[in-house]
Amino acid sequence: MKTVKTLFDNNRQWAAKITQSNPLFFQQLARQQSPKYLWIGCADSRVPANEIVGLLPGELFVHRNVANLVIHTDMNCLSVLQYAVDVLKVRHVIVCGHYGCGGIKAAVEERRHGLIDNWLRHIRDLYQRNRAGLDKAGNRAAMIHRLCELNVKEQVINASNTTIVQDAWRRRQDLSIHGWIYDIHDGLLKDLAVTVGLKR
Q1: Which of 77, 92, 96, 98 is catalytic?
Q2: Active site residue 44
Q3: What is the pLDDT of residues 27-41, one digit of tens each?
């Protein structure tokens, strides 16, 4: 059985491996972060943001929550977005969902899950608005699959409509919002072709 001590052992091995391949890595990392990307993803443990896109620490600013939501009253998400856009000057915000999302599944179930139901209400509303089309998906798995995609598209719109992003575009800041989805069955990303950015 793994214990918390195992995590410290893993950490030492990881740090040693990084240092062996690049002795100055941590010195350079400690000086500053200057990522070009903000990743807004799901908190699911099967979706490790940096690893999926092959980026090292310092190259990807990350915000994660259940079902990768961008809600206009979520000060946590908005604070991350504001810091990424206004201070770090990221050029790309990636909203990334994943197939098989437990939050999406829970949002359409006909039973209560507790406090999380309040968070998932946004997805339930999205489901209700698109129910006619979703019910034609063929089966429940296909419907959940499609709702995962619709949720990403909705969150791209939400991110684009924040005052943070609108103000950045008003300043002519180079910033694009992308909608992607990750397939936990094969480890591949799919671009949902919903990128929004400044028209130059």
Answers
A1: 98
A2: yes
A3: 777 777 789 999 999
